[in-house]
Every structure is written in structure tokens, then in C-alpha cells.
């Protein structure tokens, strides 16, 4: 028996050396069954009645039994036998055969298409390919917890950072941003914080290559975003899919690096066939989602006067410059000035792909030009290029592929996120009348300085990322493949920050006229991974064995130079023009990681699965005798719906799988060299002598932290897969947590790295995902997706907690993210002072003894709800993200600038319910100009009390996408394969009771942006 | 399908290849721009670099001795005020919160310096490869900076943990030691430092024997060991250095060339940012583009000068862009790097005038009133003021010392605040000056909340 169909197996099947992949049905049609194959052209006369003989197999070359084969439009039907064979007599060779198999999508084949045919079945839910660590699997066979987001979902969100496009899409994954600034960092947490203070970031892998999870611009030149997210280097249009690996079974193959979950990004690959060129361009606008209603000048001055009256102080030149000098005429909407812009985005993509059966290629080019909403120049330009080439030899034994990707990004902004200036008094002079320069009041602090000073600052950041990776594989035997993956990545961030003479040098600045920062940061990584794949089967028993090794070496570092007093501000890009070099530094970091890993997957009768993974990791971040740790996981799955009992009695169940996993993982996310006590150059020379100074307190004692992860999940698909659901329960327990152990400053240090011996933490939660195909007709489709996650973080045990440095931070039985707050009692009706509860009744309010654990910053639950409607060429996608977070820092949290009455503007709602006169039963304290003294102390406690905690729950129309694909015949007239137009919107609507800027970024940051774009996609 | 045995037989040697790996693949070198603890004190050169590192951290990198220690205590006392800087209010109104970041800094920096001293002392206890003069210098510098740090801590916070080890697992839980024990350590350190440090005569920014002696005089005075205070001060005024160490003209006191300087932060060749100007100059002198002086003197302070005092004329200046609240400290004239370098200033930490005043105060306490009055008259004479009558009582002389210290040492190192506290005069003087915002308990800054939280053996000062 020959199966020539295998020649046309897509490349990635070969890459896996026969691992479990797509289900493919090979049909071989022959007039003379099983002995010879007709040529493709077809040798039989066209109208003669004929008997089609065929065999239906899956990718394992296992015959499929009971497949229905029907001559379309007739009752002429047969089924395949136990060898997968069928034969059917049809009246002519152009008859259509309809092939149907439960759990698989149906397909139609022309009887005359004799010869080798590969028919890739439209993937059923079960056969959906899922990328896993060092391989691929299918939804049906997975033993671990993996969620998948299609590239399409990412592309339809017109935002700069592809990781942000996962927001709300995946159960168990909580994503937030730090601000709405260009380049802002993202926080991704998979199933809560599994570690106390080690790196909480998931592992990011793009086509097998690890990427840095957080900013590498250690030397910063200023700029609005501060630290820059590394993910803005990715081009959304290059992404084929993103898989999120969550449980022990799925992540164990990455060992300790996968302790916080793994995000696998797979990029698009070329497909064999004619060369296709497609272009996609969109343009749109963005602005901050929200502004607050602050006081206008009159209201502000009134508040200030009332505050002075309440304090019994007369406003004077020294205490009330805003009343006495600035006058009541001037008004500036400072929010508008600082971040009120509506700005444009342009994004253009060009993609060329094609190839032969043995060699395919894909070239993707992207360009994005985006303006941020901040005052001054605020722009980001990104160019990306990605080339992927795959090749396999004519005997299919030898495979190779290479991907080269390069990103060039430029970013410009003012020297800082000057957001805090939005709360200056609304009557502050912007320009000094005499000098025409930004107004610089007598105070040494920002409250009397014009925000326009920031227009005299600007930063340029250039960012380059190169990722080159390659694979060489050789099929030693039919069931044995050896493979070598190698990758090199290099990131560079080079910045210049210019601070010109109109910028108000703060009191610490040492330049007379101007200064400029020059920085370079680099990180490069080699990652080499030899692997062996071995597959074997005996009857219904199938084994897949993977073994391999990882050698990773990362070097990072940078330089920082400050030049001062450039004679001309046009020369500020030229370090050589500086009057003097005033500051200079460099850094160097080395990290090595090495592991051995192995995985055995056992499949019995495609119904029972067992997956065992072992990994031994060594990391240079530990002292030499503590470098290696052993991690493992075990996953099992049982496809209930393959059991006859289920088939017979629960016919509405199209698929049911019960799976469970348990494993042990670790974490080395503690920074390099933490075990060494090191001495570096003192920051400054003294008297012409450079010095050495202890710059790191080493602790050689710490070792790998351990997290045990357990999961049990049920995947249930009903009504012919119209409803697909996954419900998972997880329990992660951590011990020996690595922490930056805080020490009293009297030691000379604030912390060192250590294990929290005996302390046990737990993250326990439930995830639920479902997709329903509500309406499925030829013209109209309606699909709903929903996911929700709830979890609880708990400190389970902490021996001797009260005697440790954590006594006042943590409480056994509460979340690690619990707030320690004074308990707000009431506003004293006589004095208007905010009062907090004296918990221990000693007559004194003290920081140590009178705070209680109050809620936690963990979300109570979160998720997303999406609806997709398709009608002919129209597609409408509406996606809501929701987060229930009952406890978050509210507007008044511990911030001097939010105290009504001092020389800062406040939102109107802060004046609602304030105490005005004795006897008032008020909900907010009285106005005061004092932030010290008795009232200052009381207000400080109030700001650190339960009253400053607010509910930051929200529901957000995260994404709206409306597209129209022009009917094929019209497109053809335009000589196009495909023509599509679309509208995209992001963060269009937010429903929340939160009173600050934005519930996603509680506190004082530039809020996220609202984006609206229009686009056009063309394929030639 | 071929036999699985063939596959397995191929697999095994492959596995062997992978398994031959391990330890060497995760070996790393220390960072290329660092030394690790074991080697950092290995040679004379490295020890000397560590000595320079101590100067750099203490005097240049920390902003402690030239900014924090000058300004914040001056707010707490009756000397300085500020314009609308909420973060300073807690000092001005003597209502520091235990969470105050600036008082935390005044706790953190000395203790980090003390760690470095302790590390150096233990590393050099046995250092066979280090030459004796380098070793002595290192031990002397370590003891000097440890004493300076403790003197600052004990002046501002009262009883403080006496950390004498670099082992943080020990030092992290130490309770506060009585002031007496801390002073005993300070005096011991300085006494030894005097022997260990170089006996050079000319100050050039390095701690030398006379510098240790001057600090010792200050420490004895604070501890009310009058005889020793007077003797140490006298040694500096009339000892072997007489001639090369002398009071300067009022206009010359803070210049690099000043003969009055005992110890100063060298602005020349130090720091990558200041060349010729001091941080105090930077801080006190308003920016030319500002609409006012952000720091300015209280009226009480300006009224304290007698008519004709040259210090009022030369060391106080007015910012004309704004009235009133515009008199600011002007001991240092350079806000920025001078073009020609002629006026280059050093940031003075200890100068001879203070020795005269220590000498006067200690002698007054000992009842040697004429010696005290003579010393005061020397200082007054230089400022263009007349002599004090010889008939003053002991109490009157002590008040004259207080007054003279006020107008001589203002805007230097927070002397006024420490003086009012150590002489028990804070309630009388500051109570009158500040009115109802003054509280007796404010004489000590709060132990930082952060450390109270991390070290349960610490106790808070009264009133916080």
C-alpha cells in the first residue's frame, strides 16, 4: 500500500517527525483497487460509470473506520471498513463524493480526482492544531491546559503592542498596562502571582526563541513611558497564533522558565502554491479614554479660600501665591494641554508568500507610524521585516528552516510623563511675562512650575531587534528524528534625552544651561537546543518520546553618558560639543542557563493519554553548588466521549475529555549575580581618585523556589460541537519562595535575595471558557465566546511570621497582595478631621499596630465576552473585557496632591460631602491648606486608610471590528484575489464606578487610549 | 515500520551526548566591571580604591553632608523657611511623620556608610598582603567615617542601633543602644583614627589627623566632656598647625584657598558634576530665571545679627525679583561652575571658627570665663563686632556662645538645631519662635517607620 499523499504533507507535519498533528484524510482513488495509482491527469474516459476505491486514513496513517462516503445528491452511500477502505460505484467521474466522519468536518471530493490527493480537512475543534513546547498537538489529544488566540484576533486590534491584544481573551490570563503612553510596559499574570518577589512574568517564546519579558533599557534617558515594553518590537500582522500554556503539564517542558506560564507566539509561514501578495493598510485616530472634571479657576480659588478659613489662617504671599499673585482671571485646562491631543495612527503591511512542495517562503514587511497623546512631539515609528524560508529534501528526510526578523523602532516624547502637572492650580501662569520662558515660581517643587517647561525637553529612543533562528532536522528512521534548533536574538535600545534651558532644572540638577543624556543598552542571547523525537506504536499503544537539551547564554549591558552645557542647543546630539561630561556609567550582565529535558507521551486507543515530563535546569543565578534543580510534571487525559457508554446514551455530547495534571516547577527570576557580593566603581571620583564601593549584598545560600501546580479540567462539547466548553480548576502552591528579603536600613542595605523557608502560598481558582455557534447558516453566522476566571491568592503558612520582617505586611490566610490599611472610622463632626480606628485600644494610632488587612489588589474575577456576526461578506466582532476588582487604590490614596485645599487642583467629586461646619455628618474631611501638623497627620492616615480603597471594577468595549469582504467576482474584476475594508475601534466605551482616571491603571498615569481606525486589505 | 529496537539503539548514544553536559555550561564570571568580595581588598591598589570609594559615597554621592544635613535641620530650627514645598512642611512645623522620606534618607545614608566601614575594618583586620601604611590609612578612614556617621545619627535620632558588623543577619535585629554607648564608640573611633590617619598639615579634602581631632572636639562637646573638648580645640587653634591653620577674612572663608578649613568636600576633581561650585551654593542661590528664592531666612534669624556684622553683609544675600521673603544664605557665591575658576569654593564641613566656639563653650562650662570670652571676641572681631564685656556671668557667656554660633555657623551642617537640642534650649527658643506648632518631643526625629516594621526590636521616639 502506498500513501503518496504524504508528499504533500505540510512542512510542519514533517518537522514533527510524525508527531500527533492535523488530521488529514488521504484518499486514493483507483479503478483497480490498491494495486496501482492512476496518474493525476486521469486516464479513464470521462462519462463511463466507474467504481471508486479509496481509503480514508488519518495522519498517523491509521485507517479510519466507519467513515460515511456518499455520492452527493443521491442515496448512494457506503462506509469504510476496519482498514479504512471503501468502494463506491458512481455514474461518471465528475460525481462528487461527500465524506463525513463524526468529530471531523465533512468534505467533498470529485471522483475523477484520482491520483494523490491530500485533503486537509477543515479543522474540527478537536483537530485544531495547538502549538506546545517543542512540538504541536491537537485540541483532542492535549493533556495540558493551553489556550489559543488566533492571529486574526490580534490583528483586528489597532494597537501597538500585540501582547495587549490578548487582554480579556484568555481565561486565567490577566493583562494590564502601566499607562497609555507609547511603549508603556504591560503586566501579564497567568493564574495570579505565583511568586512573591521573583520575576512574575511568563516566558515568551517566539517560534522557539525566548524573548525578554521585560524592559531592557536599564539606562534611561527619560521619556514619557519610562521603561519600554519589549513587545512593541513585534509586528501583530506577523502572528499566526498565540498559545498560552498554563498548567504544570503544558509548561513543564520549559522547566523553571515556565513557572509563570508560557506565551508561545507562532509567526506566519509560507504555503506552497502560487505566489500571493497581500497588502493591508489602516489609518485612524486615538485619544485618552478619560479626563476628569477638575475645578475651574473660580471654584479652585473658592476652595483655597475656604481651606484657609477652615485653618484659621489668612492667605499670604508665602502660603498662597496662587491667590495673591496669580489672580483669578487666568484658566488653563491643563489636562487638555498635557494629554488632550487626538492623534493619528497609520499602519501598513505587505506580505509575499509562496513556494513549491519542498520550499516555501514568506516575507512580511510592516510599517507603523503612531502619534501619542502627550504634549510636545510624541511619535513612534516602527518598521519590521520578517523572512521565513522552509525546505525539505526530496526524500523528505532532511528538513530545514530559517527565520530572520528585524525591527527598527524610533520613539520620541517629552522628557517625562508630566501627567502630575494636570493637577496644578488652573490659574498658574504658563509663561513668565518678562522672559517669555516657562513660568518658574519661587517654590522648589513642581506646584509653582509651568508644565510648558517640558516642551523644552525631548527624548529620542531608537530600538533595534534582530531575531534569527534556524532548524535542521533529519529523519534517521521513519519514526526517529534528530533536530537542532538554534537562535540568536539581539536587542538594542539607544536613547538621547535633551533638557534645554527653558526646562526648569530641579534643585538637584547641576548643569547651568542644558544637558543631554546618551544611553545604549543591549542584550543578546544564544539559544541552542538539540532534540530527538521518537515515535513508536504497538497496536493501540502509541508512544512519542522527546528528549533534548537547552544551552542559553545571555549577555546584557549598556552605557550611560551625560553631557552638560552645550554652547548651542542645536549641537545637543553631539556629545563632543558638551562643555563637560558630567556622568558616565556602564554595566554588564551575564546569564547562562542549561537544561536536559525529556517527555514521553502515551496514547492508548486515542482515548487515554498520559504525558510525563522531566527537566533538569541549571542557572547561573545561583551559587555554584545550588545551580541545578529538577522539575517534572505528569498529565493524564481521558476522552470520555470515545467510550461506548457515552456514545450510546449521551448522543448530544460530541466530545468530552477529563484531564488532570500535577507537577513541580521553579523560578530563577531574581536577577543575575545575586549570590555574589560585588564591588563596583563608586558613582563619582573624589579628589581626582576613582573609588570602589560595595554595590551588592550577596547571599550564596538561596536556592530554587518551588511551585507545585495541580489542575483538573473538563472539556465538553455539545450538540455537534456547536457548544464547546472548558472548565478548569487549578491549585498552585509555592514554597521556598525566593524573595528580595527586606532588611532594616540599619544594616546598610534595604534587601538581599533569600528563600522564605517554610512559607507556603497558594493560588487556587477556576477558569471557564465557552464558544457557542448560535446560528450557522450559509449566509449568516453568529458565534459567541466567553471566558471568566476567578482565583484566590492565600498565604497558607508562614512560621513565626510575627518575628519576621514580614510581620506587618502579610497575614496568614490573606492574599499576598492584601492592603494593610488603617480602618477609616468617621469624620469628626466637631472638627472635620478624619478619624481612624485605634485597633489595639492603646490610645495612640501607630503605623505598626493599628492597620488591618483589607481586601487585596487581586481581581475577584475577570474575563471577556465576544460576539462575532457574519453575514455574507460582512463581519462584525464586538468584544467586551470585564474585571471585577473591588479593592484598588482610589483617587485619594496617599497622595499629597489629592488633598483638597492645598495648592493643587482636585476633581469636583472630592468636594462632595466635605465637612463644612461643626455638627456636619460629613463623608469627607474638612478642607485644609496644611499637610503637616495635626491635620496633616490625620489626613495622611486617611490617605492610608480603607477610605482610600476604591472599587476599580469595569466593563470595557475593548474591541469593535466591522469588515466587509468584497464578493469574489467583483474582486476578480479588479484582478484581485481578495478585497476587504474594515473599521476597528479599541477601548471605545468603559463602564465603571471608579472615580479616578481609569480603573485599569488606578492611580496617576496617562490613561489608556481610545483608538478608531479605517483600513483596507488587498490580496493579489 | 522498522523495529523500535533500532530507534532506541540510536537514541541511547545521542542521550549520552546530551547528558555529558552540566556544571560548566552554567559557570559565569563576575561582572566584568566589578570585583567580588574575596578580591576587593586583595592589593594595596584595591584597598586605596576602596578608601576613595568611601569618600565618594559619603561626600559626593550621598548628598548627605552637603545638602540634607544643612537644610532639613535648619527648617526644624528657627533658621530657614521655604516657599510652598509641601515636602518640607513636616520639618518646618516640627510634625515629622515616621514615613517622612527625607528623615529616612538621613537614617539610611549614615548606616550604609557604617556598613562600608565595618566591612573595611573586618577585611583589613588580617591582610598580610597589604602594606602597613595603606592598611593604617584604610582603618583610619573607616573609623573616621563611622564616627562621623554615628555622630550625625545620634544628634538627630538620639539612641540608635550600634552596628559594628557587616553581617546583616546580625545587624538587622539590633535594638537601639543608649547614646552614651554610641558616643563612647565615636570617641574610641576618632581617638584611634587620629593615630592611624596621615599627619599632614594642609587640608586638601582628605581626612587627616587634625580632621579627626576636630571631629573629636565636636563629639566631646556634644557629650559634655568639657575638658577634653577644650583641649582638642586648643590643640587645633594653638598647636603645631598654628600659622597654617588660621581664621580667614570673612570673604575668603569658603574658598578653596581658605586657611580656616579643617575639613571640606573637595569640589575639584570630585564628582562628575560639580567643578568649582558646591551643592550648598546650588541649593541656596536661586536660579536666575526663578521668581523667588525657594529657601529663605526667618525674620527672627535676620534680626539676630548685631548692627555692623560683616557676616550679615557678606554671607546673606537678597533676591531682588521678589519682596519680601527673599534673603537667602550666601556663604557660597557660586551657583554654577565659575568661568575663570578664581572663586572656586569647597564645601566646608569643619572649620577653625567652630574650634574657637567649642573652646569658648567648653571653657565657659568649666568656669574659665575669660578664656571663653577671649575666644568669642576673636570670632566677633573678625566679623567687625566689638568685644564682649569681661564681666559676663557663666550663663551670659553660654548665651553669648549660643548667639555667636548662630550667626557664625548658620546654614552650615544644621548646627543651630543640634545646638538648641544639646543645650536643652529648644523648648525655650523654638517654643517662642514657632508657637503652638512646637512640641518638646520634636527634638528627636522619628525612627523611620520602615525600619520599625522590619526590625521589631526597634522602639520609636516619644511623640510619634
Describe this structure in words.
The complex is a heterodimer of chains A (1020) and B (464). Chain A is mainly beta and 1020 residues long. Among the domains of chain A are: 4-120, Immunoglobulin-like, CATH 2.60.40; 129-269, TonB-dependent receptor, plug domain (Ferric Hydroxamate Uptake Protein, Chain A, domain 1, Beta Complex), CATH 2.170.130. In chain A, 6% of the residues lie in helices and 47% in strands. Chain A has nine helices and 47 strands. The model of chain A is unreliable at 1-46 and 114-122 (pLDDT under 50). Chain B has a domain at 43-197: Serine Threonine Protein Phosphatase 5, Tetratricopeptide repeat (Alpha Horseshoe), CATH 1.25.40.390. Chain B is built from 19 helices and nine strands. Chain B has helices at residues 4-19, 44-61, 64-76, 86-92, 101-123, 132-157, 168-171, 179-196, 209-222, 226-238, 279-284, 299-303, 310-314, 352-365, 369-382, 394-408, 415-422, 426-434, 449-454; strands at residues 34-36, 80-82, 160-161, 176-177, 261-265, 295-297, 316-318, 327-329, 347-351. In chain B, 50% of the residues lie in helices and 6% in strands. The chains are: A mainly beta (1020), B mainly alpha (464).
Would you state the CATH class of one domain in chain A? Mainly Beta
CATH topology value of one domain in chain B: Serine Threonine Protein Phosphatase 5, Tetratricopeptide repeat
What's the end-to-end separation of chain A, in Å? 40 Å
Pick out the low-confidence regions of chain B: 1-5
Strand order of the largest sheet of chain B: 2-6
**Fourth-level CATH superfamily of one domain in chain A:** TonB-dependent receptor, plug domain
What is the helical fraction of chain A, as a range of percent? Answer: under 10%
CATH architecture label of one domain in chain B? Alpha Horseshoe
Total number of beta strands of chain B: 9
**Regions of chain A with pLDDT < 50 over 5+ consecutive residues?**
1-46, 114-122
Largest interface: A-B, 115 and 120 residues
Just name the CATH architecture of one domain in chain A.
Beta Complex
Which strand-content bin applies to the residues of chain A? over 45%
Number of helices of chain A: 9
